[in-house]
Amino acid sequence: MAQADPARAVLWAATADWERPSAWPVAGRLLLTADRLLFTPRSGDEAWSTPLERIVDVVVTEWPPSMGRGRRRKRIRIETTDGSVELFAVATVSHAVDVIRVAVRAAGGDPSP
Length: 113
What we know:
Oligomer: single chain
CATH superfamily: Pleckstrin-homology domain (PH domain)/Phosphotyrosine-binding domain (PTB)
CATH architecture: Roll
Mean pLDDT: 86
Helix content: 10-25%
Order of helices and strands: EEEEEEEH
Low-confidence stretches: none
């Protein structure tokens, strides 16, 4: 019997909306493994993922008023080493940020506190 790859096991997951400034939010799931953070859409939209060691910042943020639409709920802000920023709306934002930060540190990254 083949062994499952522990790096691919889902450690944490949440229903999420991927908030993009130039497009409507995409509903799906935010998934955390031992080495990646992934977003899988519910429909045929594009997916997103990044290795944990590329994450340099994980914080709770408000939707910027300059973005116009959107409820004023808090979001997870993920910044990577290439300077790109992704926003995800989940039900338990503070808990999600804590879980992701712990995983990034365990993978050798250093997210902001």
